[in-house]
Amino acid sequence: MVQTAKNILMGSRFKFGLIGKNISYSFSKKYFTDKFQKLGLNTYKYSNYDIPEIEEFPFILYQREDDFQGFSVTIPYKQSIIKYLDEVDADAEKIGAVNTIKVTEDNRLIGYNTDVYGFQKSLETLLQKHHKKALILGTGGASKAVASVLDKLNIEYEFVSRNVSENSLLYSILTQQIIEEHSVIINCTPLGTHPNIEDAPSIPYEFITDKHLLFDLIYNPSETKFLQEGEKRGAIIKNGLEMLELQAEKSWEIWNS
């Protein structure tokens, strides 16, 4: 059962943080800081830990004044963080990516993936009967969560990557036929994130139609160039803000369960 605000205040742990790289723009710090204020959790703190390499993660744990209750994990460490964890939830282990870490009372680190929950809840209300195949742009940790959701929804998918791989298509080989057959296209890359708002995945946008659904995990800006190109052609579009809010609430539930 999730603890009430009063119960949380009685606990000894009150520090949370985001692990990532180049995360000054991050949604999480403001979201949780505002949440703590609304709940009256005045001794709670959420900080960004912007580290150039994942090998610095242990130093965050050991050079601290306060106990941690949990961490969020973002690009590019959702996969590489796993080696530092004591346990990984079965779903997160299957996906191969972690975006939430719970610190137990005996200081064990347990990894979870709440991106799956957030993405599924955000996507499924938009799906139509003809949305049977998808392209997943990018092959990082977020793309693994997206693929897991598409499996659950019985939507076939292909990964698209800049690098040659048996398990993905190259951007350079995307044809009109491929785009038309895959009516759901999901951007899991950071391309287009503020301040680089003119960037976008290199796909042939001229073949997008009003049958397509374009979903961008980016939320800043609210409408990326990727989404703008879809909107021009009548596609359904959605950014990653609701997904982030949903996954954040699921993380909060895990931290306080």
Tally of domains: 2
- Average pLDDT over all residues: 92
Number of helices: 9
Evaluate the radius of gyration.
19 Å
Q: Oligomerization state of this entry?
A: single chain
CATH topology of the largest domain: Rossmann fold
The strand order across the widest sheet is: 2-1-3-5-6-4
* Secondary-structure-derived class: alpha/beta
In angstroms, what separates the terminal alpha carbons? 6 Å
Count every beta strand, where a strand is a DSSP E run of 2 or more residues: 12
Largest sheet, strands/sense/barrel: 6 strands, mixed
CATH hierarchy: architecture of the largest domain: 3-Layer(aba) Sandwich
Percent of residues in helices = 25-40%
Tell me, briefly, the overall form.
globular
State the CATH superfamily name of the largest domain: NAD(P)-binding Rossmann-like Domain
Q: What is the strand content?
A: 15-25%
Order of helices and strands: HEHEHEEHEEHEHEEHEEHEH
Please report the first level of CATH classification, the CATH class of the largest domain: Alpha Beta
* Spans of at least 5 consecutive residues with low confidence: 1-12
How is the topology of this model organized?
Layout lengths: L4 H6 L4 E6 L6 H13 L5 E6 L6 H6 L5 E6 L13 E2 L1 H6 L4 E4 L5 E4 L2 H9 L9 E5 L3 H12 L3 E6 L6 E3 L5 H6 L2 E4 L25 E4 L8 H8 L3 E3 L2 H15 L2
Parallel strand pairs: 1-2, 1-3, 4-6, 7-8, 7-10, 8-9, 10-11, 11-12
Antiparallel strand pairs: 3-5, 5-6
Helix pairs in contact: 5-6, 5-9
How would you sum up this structure, described in words?
This protein is α/β, with parallel strands linked by helices and about 260 residues long. It has 2 domains: about 5-115, Leucine Dehydrogenase, chain A, domain 1 (Rossmann fold); about 115-240, NAD(P)-binding Rossmann-like Domain (Rossmann fold, 3-Layer(aba) Sandwich). It is built from 9 helices and 12 strands. It has helices spanning about 5-10, 25-40, 55-60, 90-95, 115-125, 140-150, 175-180, 225-230, 240-255, and strands at about 15-20, 45-50, 70-75, 85-90, 100-105, 110, 135, 155-160, 170, 185, 215, 235-240. The strands form 2 sheets. Strands 2-1-3-5-6-4 form a 6-stranded mixed sheet. The chain has a 6-stranded parallel sheet with strand order 9-8-7-10-11-12, sandwiched between helices.
